[in-house]
Amino acid sequence: MGARKRDSDRRIGRRALLIGGAAAAAGSAVLARDELARLYWRLPGVRRPRVEGAVDFRGARWVSASEANFRWADRPDDYGIDMIVVHVTQGGLDSAVKAFQDPGHQAAAHYIVGQDGRVTQMIRELDVAYHAGNRGYNERSVGIEHEGFVDRPEDFTDAMYAASARLAAGICRRYGIPVDREHIVGHVEVPGTDHTDPGELWDWDRYMKLVAAAHTASA
To answer: Where is the N-acetylmuramoyl-L-alanine amidase domain (predicted)?
Structure first.
């Protein structure tokens, strides 16, 4: 009688183990499926879903850059954003837009700010734009172009400074970027670059005061 009971207990224990193991396997399968569902878009040739034409800066117009000039990503989840890089287009707004739409250009920034203060977004902030000439900086920064030439201070209008400052302040708030010159830099300050923009005539003191004021006001 005792032997039969022990055999029965062993059968019950084995059955419970099998059931428990199956449940654990099923649970693991669900977790694995959920993980794959979350990460599937990172496979080569797969694009993370996003709303077509959506912008990160309210009031910006959307004009898409060529896919050859940026890399699909999911920032800040895959690459943390802790910098803004300031550029000058060395040309007009339309020519900059055309260049960023050209797959042979191999470069583009997230934003272009016009002399009239209007903002054009060409790459989502979650994607990596090829704008800084340095892969590490590209992955960690948002690039803001400004319409004009580095040797013409009249190109840097009041409307441009004000709009760019609001744009930069919003980026800083979204990602917790400090409003200082260590984290808001010129293209010329990126290691390894051969660019000189935004140039000596860009008024950094004025710009940083405007960014700080806009950052405080948005709080």
So the answer is: 71-199
DSSP structure class, residue 65: P
Give per-residue pLDDT as tens, 135-175: 999 999 999 999 999 999 999 999 999 999 999 999 999 99
Contacts by 171-175, CB closer than 8 A, 24 or more apart: 171/56, 171/81, 171/84, 171/125, 171/142, 172/84, 172/211, 172/215, 173/215, 173/218, 173/219, 174/56, 174/125, 175/76, 175/80, 175/81, 175/82
The pTM (predicted TM-score) of the whole model is 0.80
- Whole-number Å distance between alpha carbons of 90 and 207: 19
SS3 200: coil
